[in-house]
Design goal:
2 helices; single chain; elongated; mainly alpha
Length: about 70
């Protein structure tokens, strides 16, 4: 196991508020991505279209139940 360097004097950003804030590290798992990628955008568009057959099936089931 290798040792890693610990930052003894953390860098604190100055701002108008009272609470000190540290910048997010470049590989922070909690930093969100700026937006969906091209593949994700296409997947969500297809997922929106998937509601059409679901609505048709629900309408058929409701029609058959009330008949």
């Amino acid at each position: 196991m290798t040792e890693r360097e610990v930052q003894h004097d953390p860098q604190v950003l100055e701002g108008d508020d009272e609470s000190p804030r540290q910048p997010a590290p470049p590989l922070d798992p909690y930093t969100p991505e700026p937006g969906p990628g091209p593949g994700e955008r296409r997947a969500f568009a297809v997922m929106r279209l998937a509601w059409i057959p679901v609505a048709i099936v629900v309408a058929i089931v409701v029609f058959a139940a009330l008949r």
